[in-house]
């Protein structure tokens, strides 16, 4: 609901397992002095039930906005997810070097950062 109106119809890849994506367009709440208008934000949401993944891609005119939107959506979703399912999301990036934990094998108990090898995450 926060993201505003969708600018695409849901794009369904499959129903079983469920895979789909949708795009949203929203204007930042406050006008930006540098831009002279409200900043434009595009949000792509993708759900992949087979891999137990929900992904957000955020596009905005300024990097701090992207970080702010991701943080805000994370907080909203994590609260709601906890209310409905009783547990919280896990951050899937290395707290040591910030690298993304891409290509995670969800069948393994431990994931080690392939970049700095300093952090491991028990899934």
Task: Summarize the topology.
Elements (H helix, E strand, L loop, with lengths): L4 E2 L4 E4 L4 E14 L4 E12 L4 E8 L2 H23 L24 E3 L7 E3 L1
Antiparallel strand pairs: 1-3, 2-3, 3-4, 4-5, 6-7
Number of strands: 7
Report how far apart the termini are.
30 Å
**Beta fraction:** 35-45%
Helix count equals 1
Mean of residue pLDDT? 81
Q: Write down the Rg.
A: 17 Å
H/E topology pattern:
EEEEEHEE
Poorly predicted runs: none
User: Biggest sheet: strands, sense, closure?
Assistant: 5 strands, antiparallel
How would you characterize the overall build of this protein?
By secondary structure, the chain is α+β, with helices and mostly antiparallel strands. It contains one helix and seven strands, in the order E-E-E-E-E-H-E-E. The protein has one helix at residues 63-85, and strands at 5-6, 11-14, 19-32, 37-48, 53-60, 110-112, 120-122. Strands 1, 2, 3, 4 and 5 form a five-stranded antiparallel beta sheet that branches. A two-stranded antiparallel ribbon has the order 6-7. A hairpin with a 4-residue loop joins strand 3 and strand 4. The protein is globular and about 50 Å long. The two termini are 30 Å apart. The mean pLDDT is 81.
């Amino acid at each position: 609901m926060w993201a505003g109106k969708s600018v695409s119809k849901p794009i369904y890849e499959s129903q079983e397992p469920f895979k789909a994506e949708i795009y949203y367009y929203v204007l930042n709440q406050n006008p930006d002095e540098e831009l002279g208008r409200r900043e434009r934000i595009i949000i792509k949401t993708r759900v992949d039930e087979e891999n137990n993944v929900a992904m957000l891609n955020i596009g905005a005119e300024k990097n701090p906005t992207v970080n702010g939107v991701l943080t805000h959506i994370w907080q909203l979703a994590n609260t709601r997810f906890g209310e409905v399912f009783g547990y919280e999301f896990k951050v899937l990036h290395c707290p040591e070097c910030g690298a993304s934990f891409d290509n995670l094998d969800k069948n393994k108990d431990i994931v080690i950062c392939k970049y700095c090898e300093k952090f491991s995450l028990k899934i």
